[in-house]
Design brief:
Blueprint: H1 2-28, H2 35-51, H3 57-80, H4 87-95
Helix pairs in contact: 2-3
Length: 96
Amino acid sequence: MDILIYGIINSVMLALMALGFALVYGTSRIPNFAHGAIYVLCGFVAWFFVRSLELNYLLSVILSLLLIGLLGALIYRFVLIRVRGMNISEIIASYA
């Protein structure tokens, strides 16, 4: 039974990541291959807030989502917009 539950949880997480890829590419027409790294960074920031700053778990998750969302907006504004239309440059910039 545990395997079934973990399988469903992992499937939902992968579906959400795929939805994120589709949403980012659909709205900006720029492929973002660092999408998974941004998810991991968000989890690490939430973990840091809980362990090091001893914040509430829910508050840590909300703060990490806001901070990483701001980081994503800054990356889009200052990196990805500058390389729009340069096909190979878009891909290289999204890896970094």
